[in-house]
């Protein structure tokens, strides 16, 4: 075995207690979330950096054509939108000019090169009552369109929130002019090259954007709408106008999110059709998985959990580019010979890269130089394993398995951490994630489960969760753990499960079973009471459970039956619960219900409430505390010592 610090270990320590350079301090040190990248129209690029060390705020960074790098936002400014609560599309750029939404007030600002921000949108009567995102600028730079989400009063119920496409003066303050209203949701407003037509995506409750959406083109002079694609059973998105006034967009009409072209003369024709996913579920606005470069088209496609870039030549031939990247986002054309994107691999965190169609990769914003011995990094193994559907019939599920980064005592097997992504339509990402390597470098095996309902395996796999949330996902997590235990790769007596948000629900549901194989769990802001979630959550997800569980209130009995809080009498597994006190998606009372129930039953439970955090932790000190507290909890439950030298504080565990 190679030790965590690069030396040979002659007397391996017990699994879980290995010393490692991947401490919680390293996890957050200079850590950033790269949220998007866009060419500036002048040979440079702009990208967003979510910085844990700065309270999780998003700074916008400009790299000029000569390589000079400049931070664009002043101290405290935070380019982040609250539309749909998950945001996305909080900034855009045109010919060197930047527009962005500040998190504090959700108003839209313009920033000229070398200038000061100018607020363009009115001060709403309700603080943060008007939220903006996902904009597009007219070719002459004089006006723009974007999504506006209007909240008429504080804590307005979902039924009162209105989502519209509005038009604004791009240069100075103006009153927004409503262009599109009526649908429950709108996204991706995009202006044609001559600014005479507007493409936009819309959908209505109870659909989510990966269920049923419609792509419409409106003639701005006449107001006449043309439905391009979409409707029941089809998810469309990411419209991008072409210089010939045709429109490229994604559709899953074949069962996979593939690329199509529409023109008024020819209608819809396929461009890139693969048994692979080009699209991603639109939890956030302004996704970009395809770009036109000259007479060629570049797409990011996902197959069996791994991304790659593919190029369609003018003759229709599709070939894959040879790059090291396995997780790719924000693909945007950059000149006539390449694209820029945010991309990473199993051994490198995401960075900003320019990829020429000839295959050359130029790194514009490198990932952190972690200085790690390669032996410290666990590389994922694709895993397909047997599971069952709600009727008990056999089916297959998928995961990425990360073995411990070394070998422990010959007479022992490692503990296993089953990780469940959010969504639940998300997916495991095969990219270096220090928050995951934190565990493998200490001697844990980690399996990142792509349960039924996950993205990356086609619409049919995604829809396996329809009406079956809390059943199919739970079955797959149990099956993954048992498959690894049966294969002798992990210790069946030390199986743990963790998840956040929707993954937190799956964690709780997996533990609230008499046959659960897990002996510990970690719930990160998870759902304990489905009925409470259906009644309390924000507009974007207020009808999401119609598809995952059933319509509410007609299916109330199913909500009650599926809720972990209903089955607290079965909860006998020690649990640590981590929650942000400003979470509008899964409010703190959800976590507190399960904690109180465990306390009453005398089940060991630890509860950490983080002030100032929303849905997911963004502040460095809270990310560190959450990781270390979870490790301390497992150490206590599984009986291993914490690595010396890290000064990890014990976690308070209540028993009765």
From TrEMBL:
Domain Peptidase S9 prolyl oligopeptidase catalytic: 435-639
Name recorded for this polypeptide: S9 family peptidase
Naturally occurring in which organism (per UniProt): Actinomycetospora straminea
């Amino acid at each position: 075995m190679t030790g965590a610090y690069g030396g040979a270990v002659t007397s391996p320590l017990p699994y879980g207690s290995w010393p490692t350079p991947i401490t919680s301090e390293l996890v957050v040190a200079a850590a950033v979330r790269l949220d998007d990248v866009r060419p500036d129209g002048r040979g440079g690029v702009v990208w967003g950096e979510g910085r844990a060390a700065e309270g999780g705020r998003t700074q916008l960074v400009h790299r000029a054509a000569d390589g000079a790098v400049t931070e664009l936002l002043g101290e405290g400014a935070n380019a982040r939108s609250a539309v749909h609560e998950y945001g996305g599309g909080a900034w855009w750029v045109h010919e060197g000019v930047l527009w962005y939404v500040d998190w504090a007030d959700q108003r839209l600002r313009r920033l000229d090169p070398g200038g000061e921000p100018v607020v363009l949108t009115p001060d709403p009567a309700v603080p943060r009552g008007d939220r903006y995102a996902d904009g597009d600028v007219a070719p002459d730079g004089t006006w723009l369109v974007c999504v506006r989400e209007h909240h008429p009063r504080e804590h307005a119920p979902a039924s009162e929130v209105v989502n519209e496409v509005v038009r604004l003066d791009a240069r100075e303050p103006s009153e927004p002019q409503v262009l599109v209203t009526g649908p429950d949701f709108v996204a991706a407003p995009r202006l044609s090259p001559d600014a005479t037509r507007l493409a936009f995506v819309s959908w209505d409750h109870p659909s989510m954007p990966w269920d049923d959406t419609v792509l419409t083109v409106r003639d701005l002079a006449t107001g006449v709408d043309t439905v391009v694609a979409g409707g029941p059973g089809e998810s469309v998105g990411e419209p991008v106008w072409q210089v010939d006034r045709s429109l490229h967009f994604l559709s899953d009409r074949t069962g996979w999110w593939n690329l199509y072209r529409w023109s008024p003369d020819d209608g819809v024709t396929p461009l890139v059709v693969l048994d692979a996913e080009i699209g991603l579920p639109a939890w956030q606005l302004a996704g970009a998985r395809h770009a036109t470069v000259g007479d060629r088209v570049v797409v990011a496609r996902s197959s069996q959990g791994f991304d790659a870039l593919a190029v369609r030549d003018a003759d229709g031939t599709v070939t894959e580019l040879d790059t090291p990247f396995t997780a790719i986002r924000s693909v945007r054309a950059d000149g006539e010979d390449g694209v820029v994107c945010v991309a990473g691999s199993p051994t490198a965190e995401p960075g900003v890269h320019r990829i020429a169609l000839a295959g050359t990769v130029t790194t514009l914003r490198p990932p952190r130089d972690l200085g790690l011995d390669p032996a410290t990094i666990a590389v994922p193994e694709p895993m397909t394993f047997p599971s069952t559907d709600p009727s008990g019939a056999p089916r297959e599920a998928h995961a990425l398995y990360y073995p411990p980064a070394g070998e422990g005592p010959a007479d022992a097997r490692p503990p296993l951490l089953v990780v469940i992504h959010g969504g639940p339509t998300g997916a495991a990402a095969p990219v270096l994630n220090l928050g995951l390597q934190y565990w493998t470098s200490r001697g844990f095996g980690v399996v990142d489960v792509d349960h039924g309902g996950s993205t990356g395996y086609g619409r049919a796999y995604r829809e396996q969760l329809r009406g079956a949330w809390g059943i199919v996902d739970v079955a797959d997590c149990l099956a993954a753990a048992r498959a690894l235990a049966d294969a002798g790769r992990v210790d069946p007596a030390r199986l743990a499960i963790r998840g956040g948000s929707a993954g937190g629900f799956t964690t709780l549901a997996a533990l609230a079973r008499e046959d659960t194989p897990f002996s510990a769990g970690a719930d990160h802001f998870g759902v304990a009471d489905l009925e409470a979630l259906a009644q309390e959550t924000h507009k974007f997800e207020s009808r999401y459970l119609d598809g995952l569980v059933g319509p509410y209130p007609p299916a109330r009995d199913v909500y009650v039956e599926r809720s972990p809080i209903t089955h607290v009498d079965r909860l006998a597994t020690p649990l640590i619960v981590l929650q942000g006190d400003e979470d509008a998606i899964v409010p703190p009372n959800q976590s507190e219900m399960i904690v109180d129930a465990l306390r009453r039953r005398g089940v060991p439970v630890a509860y950490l409430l983080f002030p100032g955090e929303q849905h997911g932790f963004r502040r460095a000190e809270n990310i560190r505390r959450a990781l270390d507290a979870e490790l301390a909890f497992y150490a206590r439950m599984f009986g291993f010592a914490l690595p010396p030298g890290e000064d990890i504080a014990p976690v308070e565990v209540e028993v009765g």
